[in-house]
Amino acid sequence: MEEQVEGVGRAFVDHYYHLFDNDRSSLCSLYHPSSMLTFEGHKVEGVDDISRKLNLLPFDQCQHVISTIDSQPSSFTAGIMVFVSGSLKLSGEEHQLRFSQMFHLVPSSEGSFFVQNDIFRLNYG
Fold first, then answer.
1. How many CA atoms lie within 13 A of 96 on its CB side?
2. What is the value of pTM for the model shown?
């Protein structure tokens, strides 16, 4: 069970950040109408608002470099909690930004997972 949870978490993280870095507008497919995102303390809910928030970030090109992925089973509807830490390289910027992000993945009726909760923070200091 633990290996399966870790595998799903890692596969999700690879897919999510690949989309974020290469085709950000496609991230909306990972969320549902009930999904919530907190991005640097700003809370939005629903696919449209989440998509708008992510697509209007003040940078076009970036590259996520993942340092750690920790996954745990969630007792809520056989979901998975995924915690990610890493660095964000922005085009034209000399220094990388450290970040942490938490996802609560919930099984969908199609047999895959969707993001129910997503919390993102830059790590300063």
1. 12
2. 0.94
Phi-psi region of 111 (alpha: psi -120 to 50; beta: other; left: phi over 0): left
In angstroms, rounded to a whole number, what is the distance separating the alpha carbons of residues 123 and 78? 30
Distance CA 80, CA 104 (A): 6
Predicted local confidence at residue 3, as pLDDT: 87
pLDDT digits (tens, 9 = 90+) for 72-94: 999 877 899 999 999 999 988 88
Q: Of 63, 67, 68, which Cα lies nearest the Cα of 82?
A: 68
| Dihedral pair phi/psi, residue 91, rounded to 5° | -60, 130
21: tokens are: 């870095």
